[in-house]
Amino acid sequence: MSDRQVILLVDDEPDQCDLHQATLERAGHTVRATTSPKLALNMLDDVAVVITDLQMEEMSGLALCERVHAAAPDVAVIVLTGIGSIDSAVAALRAGAYDFLLKPVDPKLLLVAVSRSLERHQLRREVAVLRSTATLQGTAGLLGESPPMKKVHELIARIASSAASVLIHGETGTGKELVARAIHDQSPRAAGPFVAINCAAVPPTLLETELFGHAKGSFTDAKVSRQGLFVQASGGTLFLDEIGEMPVEMQAKLLRALQERTVRPVGANIEVPFDSRILSATNKDLEGAVAEGRFRQDLYYRVNVVTIELPALHERGRDILVLAERFLRNAAERNGRPPPTVPSNVAERLLSYTWPGNVRELENCIERAVSLARFDALTIDDLPERVRNYRAETFVVAADDPSEILPLEELERRYIARVVRLLNGNKSRAAQLLGLDRRTLHRRLERSAEAAKTRDAT
Ligand SMILES: Nc1ncnc2c1ncn2[C@@H]1O[C@H](COP(=O)(O)OP(=O)(O)OP(=O)(O)O)[C@@H](O)[C@H]1O
Ligand SMILES: [Mg+2]
After folding, report:
1. Hey, whose CA ends up nearest to atom 25 of ligand 1?
2. Ligand 2 center to residue 179 CA distance, Å?
3. If exposure means fewest CB atoms within 10 Å of the residue's CB, which of 49, 199, 202, 219 is most exposed?
4. What pLDDT sits at residue 130?
5. Which is the closest atom of ligand 1 to the Cα of 359?
6. Does any domain span residue 138?
7. pLDDT tens for residues 148-173?
């Protein structure tokens, strides 16, 4: 790295400053010096190493060390200490100092300590660079280069390191859980647990014990006390999936827990603190649920400090083919055969279908196609009927043949999806042109997405 490696000397005795500065400059280092620790804190730009005296009037070397460590963790601090204050040197090491030297300082030892610190600074920076590339690889599981997916990747990278609660919103099968994992994996909590709970799948009566735990004997089956998921996720991330399905009484308890950062296990009269980051997901229109009184507004604001809006698959253009390739390779591997190729007529069908079940539907479709494929290339016949027969135009033309007759609901779904696509995913505008309010449009899309999910399951 070509950037300058500046060493900052801090000592309230000007003579000492001059002495060390001369030693370091003779060895070819770039040195800045100040007699004021407070000023030193404003001089940290491009500094690699800080060398500070421990006993200073204005601010102790220990306090300086703590503040440098907090402001610029990759800056190495060396403290200079008299034989009588070894204790404070040890305290300084605890506060993040890298090394200490006894006074009077031996110039040779000073130079050795400085070059070691510079090396460590360099290493730290390399690790930081590596970590940011690893981060990119971390989201590699989440495929997609289309403009709306690029935005999602950028947002994940930006918010992963913060503690903010994130609400992930998107139709069924758009990858909400995958996004939650990507946030966790890129966060400083990556080494901690990732705990997920599907609020819709747990019976309401059990949700409270699941989340908060319970005390011994609090109900008949409870022989032992159990930790709730909030506490289990401490040091890591708690993912509240389908939060829109949470019963209202539970919402009040959740809100309280999030405000107090403690939970009260069922049947216990103590508060247990937790330290987990909260991510939630929903495919429902939560704002609508708030307006209709089915979801608490105060809770909505708490879980929704940041929103990640996942685009529907049909809004992602050629991402469809990128994903199809990946699923094709995975499925072929599982079937122990080379992946079939995707000829352009098949690709075209994949691109024009509306994918109401989104990425999950595509994944199922490709898996099925691979197991059916008889040749080295996929054919239209390997696709499920609804994809094979889908023609974007069918909703305008009258059926010529009884086999082309569509249920009205399907017709409506295709038309809505087509309009949304035509408007580049702008659902408000689509609702306006269709003469629906936005909420109704959402509900209709949701309903058809759910229908697709049931179709997939059968
Ligand atoms: N961008 C993506 N890249 C690769 N795989 C994806 C992507 N998005 C989703 N998938 C895959 O699609 C499937 C569905 O994703 P996921 O379970 O995260 O969706 P979801 O939004 O949580 O769905 P639901 O609302 O039904 O719970 C998973 O197998 C996931 O691995
Ligand atoms: Mg999910």
Report:
1. 172
2. 10
3. 219
4. 58
5. 12
6. no
7. 999 999 999 999 988 889 999 999 99
Contact 145, 319 (CB under 8 A): yes
The confidence score (pLDDT) of residue 2 equals 36
Q: What pLDDT sits at residue 163?
A: 87
Per-residue confidence (pLDDT) for residue 226, from 0 to 100: 79
Total domain count for the chain?
A: 3
59: region left, alpha or beta (phi > 0 left; psi from -120 to 50 alpha): beta
Q: Domain boundary at 309, 332, 366, which?
A: 309
How long is the chain?
Answer: 458
At 290, list the tokens.
Answer: 């708030």
Residue nearest to atom 15 of ligand 1 (CA): 175
* pLDDT band, residue 73 (cuts 50/70/90): confident
Instruction: Measure Cα distances from 240 to 130, 198, 274 in Å.
Output: 31, 6, 15
Query: Does residue 163 sit in the same domain as residue 298?
Result: yes
Taking the CA of residue 172 as reference, the ligand 1 atom at the shortest distance is: 25
Closest atom of ligand 1 to CA, residue 180 = 18
- At 34, is the secondary structure helix, strand, or coil? strand
Q: What domain range is 20 assigned to?
A: 6-131
State if pTM tops 0.90: no
Which is higher by pLDDT, 448 or 325?
325
